[in-house]
Automatic annotation (TrEMBL):
Transmembrane segments: none annotated. The keyword Magnesium does not apply. InterPro entries: CoA-transferase_III_domain, CoA-Trfase_fam_III, CoA-Trfase_III_dom3_sf, CoA-Trfase_III_dom_1_sf. This is Acetyl-CoA:oxalate CoA-transferase. Residues 365-378 have a biased composition (Gly residues).
Length: 416
């Protein structure tokens, strides 16, 4: 698909200061960068703690690389007066600031909304917290799996008569990141009409509940403890085949009939006991063994190819298969990047396409790790995750600091 140039992306010209760490805040800023914003990741001298997370990469955390694309890196000690002054200079030119400090910390560091909006009234200021700014848990540390456990997600994930289970993949963090980018974009739109910025608060608690809006409905007169999940059950789910596993979804009458036809089970297609999702779920003990017996005749990949467009399905694959999956390549969803520590790598590219609706091939399918020119970011295209303080000198020079001043700031450990 034809990608818009960086200058044509919707947030081109917007400057974002990312003072957050871990996943939700930084990835929210990465999403803004994906839409064209110029994002500066401001890290303390010890760096974002995500850099230190376990990784099979020797020199940099895989998670850090994946979370922090399309950013420049500045290492800054905000506890020093000179470091605070640098941040104020950045704020004067910025459009957005995002942080995930606990309530009370921004005031101690003198980077709260009241202080910074006095410097730049047009600043959109987004705070990502664990539990919000008020209430008995406001100052508690909030993390993805802590909120999963608190809000019922782990309980809902549990197998029948089994213990609660975590949903791996930091789903609350990633959804919180999407809410950050959505909220910031909305605030920027409002600023176009009013001329003023505003404070935004996004919480992991709110994100975890927003993800479960279909469960969070309690009608008058209902018992507190009822089934609140919306799983269709029955045939829908993962099934074993002769080789590998296959996910099937056949909830509509059309897809149910198509599935029965492919599996040589025509007698089930119009049977009155199985002609709705609800009925098929109730008869799962009868239907699932027959479906699985039929699926055992071929491999998951063969069934997926056979079903094609007629039955929604997917062979269960490892994530590594996505690097060179033909549909991923056709969409241009992966691209080469570069990081000073990790070197060249492939990572997620644009998740949305802005610009011309015309679809044309982009690049060469399967562009490998050696094709790193686009990834280095020096041509004004896209950047890999920055090294700690990688762009400090260039950023400070654009703020008016001389080479000798920057050298003194480095020697005093204000910047790296």
């Amino acid at each position: 698909m034809q990608q818009a140039s960086p200058a044509d992306l919707p947030l081109a010209g917007i400057k974002v200061l990312d003072l957050s760490a871990y996943i939700a805040g930084p990835y929210g800023c990465a999403l803004l960068g994906d839409m064209g914003a110029d994002v500066i990741k401001v890290e303390p001298p010890e760096g974002d703690n995500l850099r230190k997370y376990p990784s099979t990469l020797a020199s940099e955390s895989r998670a850090f690389l994946g979370i922090n694309r399309n950013k420049r890196g500045l290492c800054l000690n905000l506890k020093e007066a000179a470091g605070h002054e640098i941040l104020l200079r950045l704020v004067r030119e910025a459009d957005v600031l995002v942080h995930n400090f606990r309530p009370g910390v921004p005031e101690r560091l003198r980077i709260d909304f009241a202080t910074l909006s006095a410097v730049n009234p047009r600043l959109v200021y987004c705070a990502m917290t664990g539990y919000g700014a008020v209430g008995p848990m406001a100052r508690h540390a909030g993390y993805d799996q802590v909120l999963q456990s608190m809000t019922g997600m782990c309980a809902a994930q549990a197998k029948a008569d089994g213990p609660p289970e975590v949903l791996y993949g930091s789903v609350v963090d990633y959804y919180g990141a999407a809410l950050i980018s959505n909220s910031v974009a909305a605030a920027l739109y409002r600023r176009e009409k009013t001329g003023r910025g505003q404070a935004i608060e996004v919480s992991l608690l709110g994100s975890a509940l927003a993800m479960q809006s279909a469960r969070l409905v309690w009608a008058d007169g209902e018992s507190r403890h009822i089934e609140r999940d919306m799983r269709s059950g029955g045939i829908t789910g993962i099934h074993p085949t002769r080789d590998g596993h296959l996910y099937l979804s056949a909830n509509t009458p059309h897809f149910w009939r198509a599935l029965c036809g492919h599996l040589d089970l025509p007698e089930l297609a119009e049977h009155p006991d199985y002609d709705s999702v609800k009925k098929r779920a109730a008869q799962a003990a009868v239907l699932v063994p027959r479906v699985r017996q039929a699926l055992s005749r071929a491999s998951a990949r063969e069934w997926a190819e056979r079903f094609g467009q007629s039955v929604p399905c997917a062979e269960v694959r490892p994530v590594e298969d996505m690097f060179d999956h033909p549909q991923v390549e056709a969409m241009g969803l992966m691209r080469p990047y570069h990081n000073p520590q990790a070197g060249d790598y492939l990572g997620l590219a644009q998740w949305a396409h802005f610009g011309d609706a015309a679809q044309t091939p982009v690049g060469e399918p399967g562009a490998g790790h050696g094709d790193s020119g686009a990834g280095r970011g020096e041509s004004g295209t896209r950047r890999g995750a920055p090294g700690l303080g990688e762009h400090s000198e260039k950023i400070l020079s654009t703020l008016g600091y001389t080479a000798s001043e920057i050298d003194r700031l480095r020697q005093s450990s204000v910047v790296q």
